[in-house]
């Protein structure tokens, strides 16, 4: 992955560029990186702030032969790859909050956005967007996210080489992606559960329509959170915001 790359000093969103390149038919593994994004996209139509010189903003194009229902597995796989890369490159032990926030000391340091170009039963491309707060200092964090976000430099106490971290992320992503293509999701699921802070705890899953409190039993093959409510009914949560009891 990342053998072919497109680099921008500044762009709207690497995700938008990657969608265009995927449609134009670039090879699998194509990487889009930007030093700065002016209009970064987050999950659930939120904004994602990135800072010139301090953030990692990258999108990778994959072309797995999957059904659309299976693509959340790649989101979970990406979170594992990023946690492993951060550990290797900085020594910091991050954990994952379902589905794909990567946290250090309970604060968000990485956001992952997986989007597909697909028709009802065939995925053409999956665009994996990864945004990391790397060399932000406390005063650099936007006021909207101060208190809930952190950076690798803040947690480590020194700056981190962004290019080196991107290379390690690509290597980890490639290793896990190959494992996934040969062995399926079960090994990835086990790794994800090991790094997760949500499984085996009580939490609230909030969506625009409902809020369910329960015990997080694990994740399904489709990457859904399996949440057992107080009546013992197990809900499959496809998309929600999670509030952990400890927060
Ligand atoms: C989230 O936690 O809401 C996901 C944030 C994803 C941000 C990354 S940065 C690189 C790529 N380009 C974007 O515009 N978004 C993703």
UniProtKB/TrEMBL annotation:
Catalytic activity entry: biotin + L-lysyl-[protein] + ATP = N(6)-biotinyl-L-lysyl-[protein] + AMP + diphosphate + H(+)
A Gene Ontology biological process noted in the UniProt record is: regulation of DNA-templated transcription
Tell me the keywords, alphabetical order: ATP-binding, Biotin, DNA-binding, Ligase, Nucleotide-binding, Repressor, Transcription, Transcription regulation
GO CC, sorted alphabetically, is: cytoplasm
Which stretches make up the BPL/LPL catalytic domain? 1-181
Q: Name one GO molecular function term.
A: biotin--[biotin carboxyl-carrier protein] ligase activity
Q: Which EC number(s) does UniProt give?
A: 6.3.4.15
Cite the binding residues for biotin: 37, 108
Source superkingdom: Bacteria
Give a short account of what the protein does: Acts both as a biotin--[acetyl-CoA-carboxylase] ligase and a repressor.
Q: Which family does it belong to?
A: Belongs to the biotin--protein ligase family.
Q: What is this protein called?
A: Bifunctional ligase/repressor BirA
């Amino acid at each position: 992955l990342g053998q072919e790359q497109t680099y921008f000093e500044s762009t709207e969103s690497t995700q938008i560029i990657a969608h265009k390149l995927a449609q134009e038919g670039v090879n699998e593994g194509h990487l889009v990186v930007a030093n700065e994004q002016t209009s970064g996209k987050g999950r659930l139509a939120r904004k994602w702030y990135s800072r010139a010189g301090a953030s990692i903003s990258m999108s990778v194009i994959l072309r797995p032969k999957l059904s659309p229902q299976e693509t959340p597995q790649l989101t979970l796989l990406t979170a594992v790859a990023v946690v492993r890369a951060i550990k290797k490159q900085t020594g910091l032990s991050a954990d994952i909050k379902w589905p794909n926030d990567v946290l250090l000391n309970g604060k968000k340091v990485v956001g992952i956005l997986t989007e597909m170009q697909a028709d009802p039963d065939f995925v053409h491309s999956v665009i994996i967007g990864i945004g990391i707060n790397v060399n932000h200092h406390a005063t650099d964090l936007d006021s909207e996210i101060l208190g809930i976000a952190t950076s690798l430099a803040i947690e480590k106490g020194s700056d981190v080489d962004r290019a080196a971290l991107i290379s390690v992320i690509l290597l980890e992503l490639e290793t896990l992606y190959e494992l996934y293509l040969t062995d399926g999701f079960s090994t990835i699921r086990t790794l994800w559960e090991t790094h997760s802070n949500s499984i085996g705890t009580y939490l609230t899953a909030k969506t625009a329509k409902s809020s369910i409190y329960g015990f997080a039993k694990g994740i399904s093959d489709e990457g859904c959170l399996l949440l057992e409510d107080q009546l013992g009914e197990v809900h499959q949560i496809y998309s929600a915001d999670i509030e952990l009891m400890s927060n």
